Amino acid sequence: MSNQINGVAEMGSEMDKRAEIDATGRMAGMRVDDSEITGHFDRDGCDGGDGDNNGENNNDNNTSNNANNSNSTQRPLTIVYSTETGNAQDVAERLGRLGERWRWEVRVCEADEFDINTLLTAPIILFVLSTTGNGEHNPTFRSLWRQLLNSRLPSDLLDGLVYGVFGLGDSSYARFNWAAKSLDRRLDSLGAQRVVGRGDGDERHYMGYDGVFLPWSGVLFNNLNHLLPLPKGVDKLDDDYLPPPRVKMEWLNGSGSGSGSKNSSSSNTTNNTNTPPNNPSTPYTCTLDSSTRLTSPSWWQDVRHLVLNTPPTLPPFRAGDVAVLQPRNEPSAISNLVRQLGWEECADELLLLCDRQSSHSDNANHDTQTHTTHLPSPLQRYTHTPTTLRHLLTYHLSPYAVPRTTFFEYLAHFTSSDVERERLREFTSAQGADELYEYCARVRRTAPEVLDDFKSVRIPPRYALDVFPLLRPRKFSIAGSKKSHSHAHASNQLQLCIALVRYKTKLARPRMGICSAWLESLKQGDEVHVGVEEGTIRAPRRVNGHEDADEHADNNLTHTPPLLLVGPGTGVAPMRALVQERERDIHTQPSAQNTALYFGCRCSGMDELYADEMQSLARAGRLHYRVAHSRDDVHGNKEYVQHLLQQDGKRVYNWLVERSGYLFISGSSGQMPKGVRKAVASIIERLEGVDENTAMRKVEYFESIGRIVEECW
User: Fold this and answer.
1) How far from 459 is each of 376, 444, 697, CA to CA, in Å?
2) Closest CA to 620 of 496, 486, 480
3) Where does FMN bind (predicted)?
4) Distance between terminal CA atoms of the chain?
5) What is the pLDDT, as a whole number, of residue 262?
6) Integer Cα distance of 262 and 254 in angstroms
7) Count of domains forming the chain
8) pTM, whole model, 2 decimals?
9) Is 641 assigned a ligand-binding role in the annotation?
């Protein structure tokens, strides 16, 4: 992030400039009527800001003219997003397209590319944020967030900024949309004015995030256009407005129609091997040592223990950290897609990328530095290194994911059938959201399957990066400690516990996850590009009575607090790493034996992961190990990890409350983490003789100070 704030002095100098900013910057005295600021959205007549349909089609020339005409209205709108899975980016870009149709001068950027000083000069900023971990901001937003939390910032710092916040989260988490909520409160405390009440998109809503986004965006643009109306004689662009591609593809020595230079093994271009290319989040090259099935061969689910040999350059990692892997699509599936799209003639032509604000053709030398603000960081190398459409589809795009609303918005532009166009537009309206859910999300229909139903659609190759979402890296908790005494090669290996995703949709078609298919295809010695991030779960240590995270301070270790680990299914991965790390500590401090693991699975002998290892430690007295088998009872009674905690109530209370221990929860989100928190509250209620609300407040307090930590997905 460039031009970051250095204390309050720099901010003060920027604040002095505000009085000089006219309508092209921060508008003096700009306020929004509080009656228009509401978190409860009136759905009647609200269509997400689509407006009236004038029934006119625009070709590319008209599109460019419309965009140029909109620049004269002087209504800048900045949209900042922070994402891990790509959902927040999709919402931000949808907002951007709505803004362009209303002739706002839109700039969309990721938080780590956002100039912090823009907060002090931009008139209107919209934030689109997802939440990660236990109510935390995504890594791309953390630098900005730390600066906003500076206690020395004056309460009127952002007086004059008009803002909106839309959060994307999962209401099964205790800290649902915590990132958006905390940002909303902080901006308000610094004097900024809401243009609309915060929108809390919920993945659990039957319509997904659209259940809130569609009405919220309608209220947003109604308020924005009331705040800064269009000048007289300037109208909103009609519903057929098609923005130019946000990322340009410039074919070398051709036009993308099959006449250009072809990729070959001797070309100075990207590779087409089984290994996805490095990107900023996966910079280290490992090799696959082994991939071992952990579940019984007769069991329906295939859970693998993967061991990767790591290079010396891989940074040290600790128990609780997360490995980042970049998958790729199956090449044969991409070949089928290329044929379906009719892109055979251009799929292997060499091309360069640039954002739509710049053009390589403007420069005689392709090595000239270009403006790449709109290019996602994994694609920025292709501003200078030639690539192909096939390579982008294989390694960087996700055409076989269940498409989002954006996909259908674009298809409506690319069909020659009036009937199909009407149907596609109905899907993207608030009134048609239920039908879109039934047609697409509920049955897990993929983009190629949608194209089978809308046969008149012809997607121009230059819109590939708009139509298909980015193929995002996948994150997995590391399942082994580098410092384990029981594994001789642990210091140069990275271990993972991954369930391969196979399922049948309601269309009765078998599916396998993109990452799962890639992992299953790997052979021993294949390269895997990896990154490592600090996880939410961190092993606590105390040195001389104080918390210490220094792994080199073990000789001074005087106390290791008790650990209660709850990790059913593949949630056992970070817990296994913690258990191994505690095993190492036992050699220097006997109190490290205060570790309990509560594991959950369906059937004994079928899907009890790492059973032999954990049972051996339990027999040796170095681990309190309990397993809940939810399908073993002949009478059909189901036992879960929260039941085991209730049975061990005195131990749980003694370790967590009386001895200041820690409770870590990892696994599938939903009822499990809620059940665990409720079980702990019930134990406190019973043993302390307090009411339910008091007990739950104590659980929430432990969460707030990091003594109860949840990392679920």
Assistant:
1) 21, 21, 54
2) 486
3) 83-88, 130-133, 168-177, 203
4) 29
5) 59
6) 10
7) 2
8) 0.80
9) yes
